[in-house]
Amino acid sequence: MVKVTAAEVNKLRKATGAGMMDCKKALVEAEGDFDKAIDVLRKKGQKVAAKRADRESTEGAAVSKINADNTAGVAIVLGCETDFVGKNDKFLALANELAEVALNCATKEEFLAADFNGMTVAEKLVEQTGVIGEKLDINGFEKLEAPYVSTYVHINKIAALVGLSATVDKADVLSKDVAMQVASMGATTLSYKDFDAAYIASETEARIAVIEKDNIELGRLGKTLKNVPQYISMAQLTPEVLAKAEADAKAELKAEGKPEQIWDRILPGKMERFIADNTTLDQEQCLLDQNFIKDEKINVAKYVSSYGDVAVSDFKRVTLG
Asked: What is the pTM of this model?
């Protein structure tokens, strides 16, 4: 049997992350040949990966990287099977190393085929599956390029990227705040203007049906019924709809006996409430139309405009699970 030194074992361990005994066995099997020993470990990883192919890698880490001039960013999710592994320092270090490689790739496919210390990223995942004993996979990949790009990562569970249309004073603060908004509120599109009319119509019908069903149960229990909105998006609030809402509000004030000379002080609040009650889809899914998490008196669009001639050009989000 070939004898291997502690130094050789340590070198292989540093190169692969495999355990000491696995490295020793691999070197013995490879008769001391370092490259062959790596191949032995890789083949072990392939066997483990094949056995665990049907496992779900829903735990792991979401990480992101931004290039030096803040014009490109990438967010990835390195998935594993258990939360224990996902929080391991070596696993997180691997995730960040992979993100550095991903930063130079345009697509997930290009990323998986990219070089990682002499092997492809895909091969590295297989190798580490053998080392760790859990299925590893890239469960999320998002790339974003813009005149200014920033990121926010929430406890390695969610990673968000935000692109700005221009570099302005305190762009780092603005973009990070918006990235935090993306991470916490989970918008799916920039604005209500991006919605397809057919989608809005079907979503309106579905939401109203759910509320009406809930109200049947609430009524049976003698509880306060939920408001049934007429609309769910600003895209539906045409000038005619808003004019009718204002007329209805004035009629209500008149019926309440409010003096007409104070209506101008009351109407803005009533219209704001009408819009808020009838734009629930926008507030849930549209980044710019959401209430800003740091100041709920304004929406994200208004916060962005406070920085001058700049806009959010795009955003991306990856998350575990």
From this structure: 0.77
